[in-house]
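Usage

Read records sequentially. Each one opens with the input sequence:
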Amino acid sequence: MKDVASRAGVALKTVSRVVNGEPGVTPATASKVLDAIDDLGFRRNESARLLRTGQTATLGFIAEDSADPDQAALYRGLEEVAAERGFLVYSGSTDRDPAREERLALALCARRVDGMVIVPAPGDHRYLLAEVKAGVAAVFALRPPNALSDPALGDTPLGDAVVIDERGGAKAAVAHLIAYGHRRIGFVDGDLGGYRSRRLLFGYTQAMAAAGLPVDETWRTLTPGKLASARVTAVLCGSRAHTARALHVLAATGSPRRMAVIGFGDLELADLVSPGITVVSYDPVRIGRTAGELLVRRLAGDDAPPRLVELPTRLIPRGSAEFRPAD
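and closes with the structure output:
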């Protein structure tokens, strides 16, 4: 920094202000400092910065599956925020294994990350309470953690959560099917105990009740393999994978009876097949950006109560659900 100050003809404090993005430097002076930095190949000493600020400018991202389209896009959104604010992101995945998540999260904390965005696996998340109380910020994405606090540790909240409005999306999808005359509507999913499935099923049940329609228990527990014999005229599929499997099953049966299909989550090429696939869409990149922005705010000193941010969904009609039932 002394070399940069000498080359630019400014005080050492001026160089420090430019490097750390602090106010009080004119654009012309900042330009001189930046030119000198380029000429000299200056790199900030991050170890010294850690000693001065107590922060490492690193974040952690823990996914369930880094190859999952939603979570890959979520990471992209987080990475955009991190790049804008000068943070480096370390990432790992858990394969929905709670023990693996705990090991990974604690390893990131041991490496002094300032905060983490976590797609939480099933299981108890009390293991994070001591780390949060010690100053590590945590934001949860796609679902909240299973344990929010522990009175034995001073009722310390774990952190913010950014989720999708699954309930509202399912309610809108089922109402859309009802508007086309469908009365026997099924819900296709394979994980009825999961957070997203429970929320989707809640919205599905609300829409059916609002229309005064009965719900057969078998309609609520459909899997793609049961569709060929199911006594329904329309289905809401709980994920991209279930939508794709349901469409494969329906195509393979060769039945003349057409079934209306709405998927939760948009699919690649969904607008190019015929008919196009009607979906409840949401923006996973926005989820990542929102989680990243919440995390950065916490690191900057925001001590407001934990927030649950619910991002909206959008129904995109494309043809796979926009027809009246044959019977």
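Summary fields computed downstream for this record:
- The first strand starts at residue 58 and ends at 63.
- DSSP finds twelve helices and eleven strands in the chain.
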